[in-house]
Design brief:
Blueprint: H1 2-32, E1 41-46, E2 49-51, E3 54-57, E4 63-69, E5 78-81, E6 86-89, E7 96-100, E8 106-111, E9 118-123
Parallel strand pairs: 1-4, 3-9
Antiparallel strand pairs: 1-2, 4-7, 5-6, 8-9
This protein binds copper (II) ion.
């Protein structure tokens, strides 16, 4: 009788941490669904122009843009950020990585080759 009670108590103790662990794992899975800090910023070129057309970044921190042109109906077939010396072709439906580090606060522009379709890159 004593042995059976001890076995039950041991079983109960073994089950308690298991329940707590299951809850912990649920929380971890939720956290993993969030985008990683310092990750890439995705920009698309659509019939509306740049989406988004305004981005906030920080001075002295590397900026990684992943630009995908999704339409053939605009003239934005390249991305030009004059102040950062960037001029990169945007092949249709191919993500293009653009990396640079803004040195000081201010507003940079990203634009098509003719500077008609523009977006603002605000450096804080
Ligand atoms: Cu243009």
């Amino acid at each position: 009788m004593r042995i059976a009670a001890a076995a039950l108590a041991a079983l109960a103790l073994a089950l308690l941490p298991a329940a707590a662990h299951a809850q912990h794992e649920h929380g971890a899975a939720k956290a993993a669904a969030k985008p990683a800090a310092g990750g890439a910023i995705e920009i698309a070129v659509t019939g509306d122009g740049w989406v988004p057309d305004q981005i906030h970044v920080k001075a002295g921190q590397k900026v990684k843009l992943v630009v995908t042109r999704k339409t053939d109906r605009t003239c934005a077939t390249e991305i030009v950020i004059k102040e950062a010396g960037i001029n990169q072709k945007l092949p249709l439906n191919q993500p293009v990585v653009v990396e640079f580090t803004p040195k000081k606060a201010g507003t940079l522009r990203y634009a098509c080759g003719m500077d008609m379709i523009t977006g603002q890159l605000i450096v804080d």
